[in-house]
Amino acid sequence: MPANSHFRATPKSSWDTWSGAMRRWRTRSPADTLRLVVDLNRCQSYGQCVFAAPAVFRFHGAEALEYDYAPGESARVQVERAAAACPVQAISIGTPPGREPGGPLR
Amino acid sequence: MTTEKIVVVGASLAGLRAAEALRELGFTGAVTLIGDEPHHPYDRPPLSKAVLAGRLSTAHTQLPQLRRLDAEWLLGVAATGLDLHRRQVALADGRRVGFDKLLITTGTRARRWRDPVESALTGVHLLRTREDAERLRAALTARPRRVLVVGGGFTGSEVASLCRDLDLAVTLAHRDGAPLAGALGAAVGGFATGLQREAGVDLRLNTTVERLEGDASGRLRRARLSDGTALEADVAVVALGAVGNVEWLAGSGLAADGRGLLCDARCRARTADGGVAEAIYAAGDVARWPHPLYDGRLVRLDHWGNAVAQARVAAHNMLHRAVDHREHRELPTFWSNQFGVNLKSVGLTAGADQVVINQGSLDARKFVAAHGRRGRLVAAVAVDSPRVLDGYAALIEARVPFPPTINATDGPAGPPHPVPAAFPGGHAVPAGGHHREDDHDHR
Ligand SMILES: Cc1cc2nc3c(=O)[nH]c(=O)nc-3n(C[C@H](O)[C@H](O)[C@H](O)COP(=O)(O)OP(=O)(O)OC[C@H]3O[C@@H](n4cnc5c(N)ncnc54)[C@H](O)[C@@H]3O)c2cc1C
Ligand code: SF4
Hints:
The complex is a heterodimer of chains A (106) and B (443). Chain A is α+β, with helices and mostly antiparallel strands. Chain A contains four helices and four strands; from the N terminus they run ααβαββαβ. Chain A has a domain of 74 residues: Alpha-Beta Plaits, CATH 3.30.70.20. The N and C termini of chain A lie far apart (35 Å). Chain B is an alpha/beta fold. Chain B folds into three domains: 177 residues, FAD/NAD(P)-binding domain; 129 residues, FAD/NAD(P)-binding domain; 87 residues, FAD/NAD-linked reductase, C-terminal dimerisation domain (Enolase-like, domain 1, 2-Layer Sandwich), CATH 3.30.390.30. Chain B has a six-stranded mixed beta sheet, with helices on one face. In chain B, α1 packs parallel to α7. Chains A and B meet through α2, β1 and β4 of A and α7, β24 and β25 of B.
């Protein structure tokens, strides 16, 4: 299976597929240094992030955004695309706390 | 005095964001973060939502660190004392950590069920930490015959919502006349009542839980409610608000009690004798301070956005002289997701004396409830209308008259009809001068 096949494979409406994709990522990612957070006060539920990274961001209900804070390294490109697409800049990307960007685990 | 070492006690959202802000502002000295949880910072809001629903594991709630910190992390060890004079924090393992400046971000914890024996019954849960969420998730996965939720604030309501999503029978007992009414007033509370009943929650209003009863093996079996019912339940979730984590400050001379740590608007801790502790700051759920935008009413805001904003102000002030200090005066904001709707609010709803549905309608389940106090707009609650709040925030900052005029297509057709906001326990707010107790304790 190509590494990113689940991006195409994940239908917008299926939570099962979403968590399935997350499980695959979890076991797969070698360097797990991607963490993200969404400021849900700022988020206006436009959904651009869901289009950019459907396996990381989801709507539960009409306006309630949910997301994976640690989707694994293989999601980085999509997550960066989502952060750039967010019209209110609500998505922040960083590293696991205690691990310096680019640095060793302290 | 130069600041060479800053210690942050409480390694969660506020502590992490404050440490980042210190570096962003150019602080090059030592930063130590002390946290009693064994984990690096994670986010709590999903615990009562995606995590409880089984859509996200707790390992996937870790918060990002947003810049280089070069910090020392002391995790899994609690601070047990503070010596203001020596500028030292005492740790549970006997160590003492010295500081030039201290930031207190120890947050709150879930208030326990009042009876320790009943509280210890298997099946009685709290929800604040990762471990709490994992335990409760496991209990729900075992498909209890009925879940009792004690308290209809945000956490209790979100848990009840989750139980219905999982098709579990759930009773929610709430001492007020409507869920969420303490935070959002009777109008939005009435709407929440409708949502819960429609979703199949057995909602008992104006009802308290008197006893939790177990069987011989120490398992919860039933609860006695003030309405006389003996309710069979094998899981109870106690969601009765939050208590400040301030025990470790006992004897330090700081003005702390279960309501939190008293601060001034510049995030400086207050001392019990009415002064200000110069080198000690606080931010996040633990802090209680006079909010400048609300006539200096003492508030404690158990909300994510407040922890982030207050952490930044505290960090700024820790690195600047008093004349360059900022006040923490950001408008409170929060969100909640429950029963399929997204709730967002801006401003302080508590203390409002009037409310009007300013956009949309309750029937359409899409509306904005504007709250007024003494003729001014003070807050807005938006249901499934996440895009309108920035506009209301600007109006609140501008202190526009209530009811506000909005040129929106979904605005009221005729003149608006404000009704009394009717907060439980009355809403009379004393005119200026003295502080009203108002610790937004609605989790
Ligand atoms: C289940 C749940 C759902 C929520 N949902 C929402 C939501 O939808 N929207 C919203 O706006 N907000 C929500 N919140 C509130 C939000 O999570 C808090 O406002 C936020 O966590 C506050 O961050 P904090 O850092 O101030 O405090 P905390 O996150 O409480 O962190 C304090 C830390 O200090 C530690 N500590 C305490 N005492 C000591 C000691 N003596 N020594 C060392 N460490 C200590 C604690 O263990 C903890 O790790 C929710 C909270 C919970 C619990
Ligand atoms: S793109 Fe931004 S505003 Fe839109 S749903 Fe995602 S986080 Fe929210």
